Amino acid sequence: MSSAVVDKQQPTHAAMDEDDEVLITADQLTSSLAATVSAAQTAAAETKSDKPDFAPLSAKDLQSKRNELRRIRVPPHRFSPLKVDWLKIYSPIVEYLKLQIRMNPKSRMIEIRTCADTEDVGAIQKAADFVRAYCLGFTAEDSLALLRMEDLFLETFEVKDVKTLNGDHLSRAIGRIAGKDGKTKFTIENTTKTRIVLADSKIHILGTYQNIKIARDAVSNLILGSPPGKVYSNLRTVASRMKERF
């Protein structure tokens, strides 16, 4: 009986020895993880080495390949002011934006071109917006704000876009926008911190996006027939809200 018991216990010890062989120690686990990480890093390095690595291009590198050109048509009624204010337009574009500019009298256009000294890629677009604002009727000082500030925009719409008016009705709508001696237009400009140009039936507004929206709503109300007193009260409310916000 005793020998039988001993024989039955011997397989049990052999199974325990096999279990001990299956167990993984902490050192073995750490070494296996380190090998896996190193293999992954090596594979990533090989994959990265296969991809081309291009250095970023500077503005001068872009300009050296191709010069950009912008042409802005000058209206006939802006030729005389352009001759007077040419130095105010020429100086910031050449000295500040490092661009080339000239007036082409045959085509009646102002041509702006980049050169090797141009540092900013978007400088030519700023200069084009600046000249375009001046050609629409804004003063050189007001148009210069487009070069100094990034969040200024220019919006143009017609009286007919708000309401279809003809003849005397159109003239009265334009008169309501301007007001006596320009009082209404100046009030809208000072309240909304914008600049407005009335060119026949077209209206040009220069300012930030939010201020343009407020000025456009005020002008639209005047076109639709609202009395100036009501528009003033609405602007006063908007101005008080803007002061509280800031």
TrEMBL record:
SUPFAM superfamilies documented for this protein: Eukaryotic type KH-domain (KH-domain type I) (SSF54791)
Protein name stated in the entry: Pre-rRNA-processing protein PNO1
Keyword tags: Nucleus, RNA-binding
Cited function: Required for small ribosomal subunit (SSU) synthesis. Has a role in the processing of early nucleolar and late cytoplasmic pre-RNA species.
Superkingdom of the source species: Eukaryota
Chief localisation class: nucleus
Pfam families: KH_KRR1_1st, KH_PNO1_2nd
Species assigned in the record: Coemansia thaxteri
InterPro entries named in the record: KH-I_PNO1_first (IPR055212), KH_dom (IPR004087), KH_dom_type_1_sf (IPR036612), KH_PNO1_2nd (IPR055211), KRR1-like_KH1 (IPR041174)
Cellular component GO terms, alphabetical: nucleolus
GO BP terms, alphabetized: ribosome biogenesis
